[in-house]
Amino acid sequence: MQKPYVYVTRKLPEETLAELKKRAEVNMWPHEEKAVPREVLMAEAKKADALLTMLSDKIDADLLKDASSLKVIANLAVGYDNIDISSAANLGITVCNTPDVLTDSTADLAFSLILAAARRIVESANYVKEGKWNSWGPLLLAGADVHHKTIGIVGMGRIGEAVARRAKGFDMKILYYNRNRKPEAELSLDAEYREFHELLKESDFVVSLAPLTSETKGMFNREAFQSMKESAIFINAGRGASVDENALVEALKRKTIAGAGLDVFVKEPIDPEHPLLTMNQVVALPHIGSASVETRMKMAELACRNISNILDGKDPETPVT
């Protein structure tokens, strides 16, 4: 009997695919830092029983309509806004993601951005490497304290709660805004709910971790930044499209806010000439929220198990509902 065919859209460690290869023919795009071209993905989808995809792969109705054998799409991410969920459901295709296994790694990265932006870590490291450090000065590259400040978390899901746990270790006051109140988190984390603009007004650090929806797209706009303190630092480890980047550039140039730490952007990879990359008060990272070796291995293994389960007629571990 012919084995089912699985296409993987980015190079993954062979050991993460070992179990899947025992029951399926697996073909993989051979590059790690180069996305699979659209035409290749379209051709592979037409013959695939399963796709293991990245957040950068656009899985839309046009691609799905010709994917007559496709049974499952396993996205190597928590988010899945790159996939037309409705079209997939109508075609009986199961969509899976990789939640939980990346929660703590992403929270570590988000809090690292808080520290890096507040204490001017990247700017200071470059200052030394560029040979500019000639003497010690009382206010040389002085940043802002993080301890005892107020953090406002927008999107209090698993990662938001993990960031709040880290904030408690810095004796921070924890505010949050979420689509739904989280009474258990309020009790366990001593977190206080605020409406969106009230959170912006009160917070020293505003951390965006919200998923991308019609409500959150562009929610950090000019009005939002104008609501924040002049000393506030904006952190985005959620979705790039939740931010109006022109409004963010304007807010930073006019010193409406003090700085930003960004792991995600509207268009990725970001243009090297983008104004955000010219500013010392911006820490910019290449979407590495979950990028620890341990976590990325676990994500790949979970995606493969989801595919195997569907191909074997079993329920997947983490279906998107």
TrEMBL record:
Signal peptide: none
Keyword Oxidoreductase: yes
Pfam families for this protein: 2-Hacid_dh (PF00389), 2-Hacid_dh_C (PF02826)
D-isomer specific 2-hydroxyacid dehydrogenase catalytic domain residues: 6-320
Keywords recorded for this protein, A-Z: Oxidoreductase
Domain D-isomer specific 2-hydroxyacid dehydrogenase NAD-binding: 111-289
Transferase listed as a keyword: no
PANTHER family in the cross-refs: 2-HYDROXYACID DEHYDROGENASE-RELATED, GLYOXYLATE_HYDROXYPYRUVATE REDUCTASE B
The family this protein is said to belong to: Belongs to the D-isomer specific 2-hydroxyacid dehydrogenase family.
Protein's UniProt name: D-glycerate dehydrogenase
Phylogenetic classification of the source organism: Bacteria, Bacillati, Bacillota, Bacilli, Bacillales
